[in-house]
Amino acid sequence: MPPSPRRPASRGPAKTAIRQLSWRAPEPAPIVLVSGPEEVCAERAIAGLRDYLKAEDPSLEVSDIRADDYAAGTLLGMASPSLFGEPRLVRVGGVEKCSDAFLTEALAYLENPQDGATIVLRHTGASVRGKKLLDAIRAGTGGGVEIAVPAIKRDADRFDFAAGEFRTAGKRIAPSALRTLVSAFADDLTELAAACQQLISDVPGDIGDQVVERYYGGRVETTAFAVADTAIAGRYGEALITLRHALASGADPVPLVAAIASKLRTMARVAGTREPSAALAARLGMKDWQVDRAKRDLVDWTESALATAIQAAARADAEVKGASRDPVFAVERLVTVIATRAPYGA
After folding, report:
1. Cβ 331 vs Cβ 256: under 8 Å
2. Rounded distance between C-alpha atoms, residue 269 and residue 291, angstroms
3. What tens digit of pLDDT does each residue of 30-80 get?
4. Whose CB has fewer CB within 10 Å in the chain, the N or C terminal residue?
5. Where is the DNA polymerase III delta subunit-like C-terminal domain (predicted)?
6. Is the pTM of this model over 0.90?
């Protein structure tokens, strides 16, 4: 379906002069600021802008500039109309490390944007360099829009990201299959995005647990959360096998312990409450399914056993980060304490 006609950026009130757009639904404007550290989402937004403009006019000229290795006059030269007047897309990277020359010329450009040009400025937020430029854009100078791409770190954020991948593609995936997929790629959003796209393109119809297991079963079996799940469920032998499989596959003890500790902390936050899952999730800033999972995990756990496990996780965390010369033993002992409900220090 052809894209809708280009709409000018809303200028709005002075302090909130530019529109904030989702990275999943980018729209062109004379200036497009893509801000934040999440590179996967930034790349999607910029690629979406290119596709949007290409659909409007296949003769689009695409150019790339580095703001931290900038030659004077480049920005205006690439943005200015060519002999045949093709639309231009200029992608500028490294704005958080921009040179003085780029900063000066970019500020001047905002005062007189070139007709038919879309300038995309990528700023990771890693430094305050270029703040004067960002402030000018956000104040509405140049008629810009902003696409924020904040870091995706929490389990709930990764779950939302993956769910959005399937929703955008019009593909249905079972909630349990989605949770398994997210757990399998908990350490790498790029790989999670690639896995979602592979399932979307390869699998006809709905996606269930068996499909995810067939594609990523080996990965799922060796994740940190698989180790945590089997230990918390009290399946000691399976937990040790899963742990050794993970370590043999190159898993680092630090994220293994972090995953276990994360699940224990979630259990502790949910323990002892009788609130409905939805109300508790809203109060704790969690997802309903996370609360439901924690409640299931708490079956057969006593308050003292949970406290012991949390103490053991804190000890293991210190040991895998240098307090012990044998981090593998530290993780194995933690799994043993949790799976067998052994006394602290066993």
Report:
1. yes
2. 9
3. 999 999 999 999 999 999 999 999 999 999 999 999 999 999 999 999 999
4. N
5. 222-335
6. no
The packing angle between helices 175-184 and 209-221, to 10°, is 20
Cα four-point dihedral sign 276, 277, 282, 284: positive
Q: Count other C-beta atoms under 10 Å from residue 162's C-beta.
A: 22
How far is 175 from 313, CA to CA, in rounded Å? Answer: 29
pLDDT at 344 over 60: no
DSSP result, 118-163: EEEEEE-SSSSTTHHHHHHHHTTTTSEEEEE-----SHHHHHHHHH
**16-51 b/e (C-beta count within 10 Å ≥ 16 → b):** ebbbebebeebbbbbbbbbbbbbebbbbbbbebbbe
Domain co-membership, 277 together with 327:
yes
| Distance (Å, whole) CA 255 – CA 67 | 35
- CA-based nearest residue to 93, from 58, 128, 119: 119
Q: Which two tokens stand for residue 174?
A: 């079972």
Give me the domain span that covers residue 139: 20-148
